[in-house]
Design goal:
The chain is mostly beta strands. The protein has no helices and 22 strands.
């Protein structure tokens, strides 16, 4: 029973136990050193040796769309972009975890940086007080910096569902859909749609839609749940641009599969 599990550290001054949730243990590395972590319910226990090390170098990767990595990108003002972060110790050993402080964003009015709960992902909120074409920079004193262009939402010239069309959908199925925004000439992919796009499903109850907000899947991914037989229609609106995704939810006939 994961709800009765108890976890303790042999030295909370090195690694503290923050909590246990559905079988996952959240730890806080306080200082460098080694500890023994004990997990159990009193009658059955397991032990794990863990080591905390100081971060020596921080490497930030530039923003890229996970499915269009060769495309030039800009980040929409008012949106959020995800930057992969690599942490290493003095010996070059890769470290896991999130929450390292010290990231700064320039210009000072450009926005703010915060860690995602997914290790290795820094989320950067882009301010609406910038000008289309401005450069935004994120850096850390223990590493390099990343710069990228920002764009006003009015720069969206193409809004489309790049994924999600499916002819074999039945009640109970899930469809992964991808909303893509580009400039009018199609040369630049615009990131940061999450929080800017209004995505709704049509009446009739055949389907529902919700954004995927985990790590790199925040780049315009949505999960459509098929409920009943009929036509599923999902509409996305960003400023003056719109895109409609439509597919049939078919009767659940085994012979039709």
């Amino acid at each position: 029973d994961v709800f009765s599990l108890k976890t303790r550290s042999s030295d909370p001054g090195i690694i503290q136990v923050q909590g246990v949730d559905l079988g996952s243990v959240t730890l806080d590395a306080v200082s460098a050193g080694r500890v023994e972590l004990t997990v159990g319910d009193g009658s059955d226990e397991d032990r794990l040796d863990l080591e905390a090390r100081d971060v020596a170098t921080v490497t930030l990767s530039p923003p890229r769309h996970p499915e269009f990595q060769s495309d030039p990108v800009a980040v929409l003002m008012g949106g959020t972009v995800q930057l992969p972060v690599s942490l290493k110790d003095a010996g070059g050993r890769l470290l896991i975890g999130y929450g390292l402080p010290g990231f700064t964003v320039t210009p000072g009015t450009a926005g703010g940086a915060r860690w995602s709960d997914d290790a290795g992902i820094l989320q950067v909120d882009v301010s609406t007080g910038l000008t289309d074409g401005d450069t935004m920079t994120v850096n850390h004193p223990k590493g390099d910096f990343v710069s990228f262009k920002v764009a006003d939402p009015s720069a969206i010239g193409q809004l489309e569902w790049a994924k999600g069309q499916n002819s074999g959908v039945f009640p109970g199925d899930e469809v992964l859909a991808l909303l893509r925004a580009r400039t009018a000439d199609g040369t630049t992919t615009l990131l940061g749609l999450d929080g800017l796009a209004s995505v709704t499903h049509g009446a009739g109850g055949s389907c529902s839609v919700q954004p995927l907000v985990s790590g790199l899947l925040m780049n315009g991914y949505y999960l459509i749940q098929a409920h009943g037989v009929g036509q599923c229609e999902v509409t996305a609106l960003v400023g003056s641009q719109s895109a409609v995704l439509s597919f049939a939810v078919n009767p659940k006939d085994i012979s039709a599969r």
